[in-house]
Amino acid sequence: MYYVVITSRLTEADISLANIIGGFMFRANLANQLVRCLNKAPELPGKSRLLSLTGKSLDGYPVQSAYGVQLVSNFSDFTNRAAILGLYGSALTRHLRNLPAGSVFMDIGANCGLYSLIAAGSVGPTGRVLSFEPQLELFSQLVENINRNGFRNITPFNLALSDQSSGIRLNGSTRHSGATFISYDLSSEIWAANLASDLKLASKIVGERELNIKVDVEGAELLALKSLGSLLGRSQTRSAIVEIDQKYLARFGVAPHEIDEHMQQAGFANQTPQPKTRETNEHYDAFYVKPPLEDG
To answer: Does one domain contain both 43 and 176?
Structure first.
């Protein structure tokens, strides 16, 4: 029996590239195995902390999250770990998985895009997701996660939404990116826009389709809701999930009842699930829903 072996001379550059590719695949696989093991132990106490300690050298690799979408790992960030390990509330996730095909979802405070990705799968190719994230590093992660998951129905905006268009400063820590909040700074290159007056493109994308909204902006929720203008009160806008945190709202001189009143004026009823699982009366997701449309 004869064997024919065809060889070619490998250059140092070829070998170096092969080592880089091999190293990437090994570390990406290691990151996924680590996450998979932790997600198989949902009741394991301190698993977020464990992932932070053991995954320090595995940042920047795509991993399969507990929610079924791929996210680029940033294990030093608690928000990223929580998204990967499935530590966020199930009520919002269930709501997003039931969004109707062809509808529009607006994700205000998208972070790395977990909820945008879940919603994109629900609204399908005829629907649209509008994702707003002002922090540039998180916005880059958002765009990468959109591409990693192959979605073509998400439009990301590197903007905050507020009742006034202005430069803003982002205050927070890279160790907990989800706790970043805005303050006004006219000299800043980071921008907040009033959607109703300055971002008419978004309204055109929504058109006459059903619209559902999520707002999580660490205390600036009322400002973001006001930026929507008349869009919030239209009959096509069916639901809004709004993070309520008394301490964060107080930064902007707002109390929870003011958000309730604003939403009621726009035609919403507060249908927050009770009891508030894993949450307190000081911090929870409020579910605002409009009554069913009358036939005809």
So the answer is: no
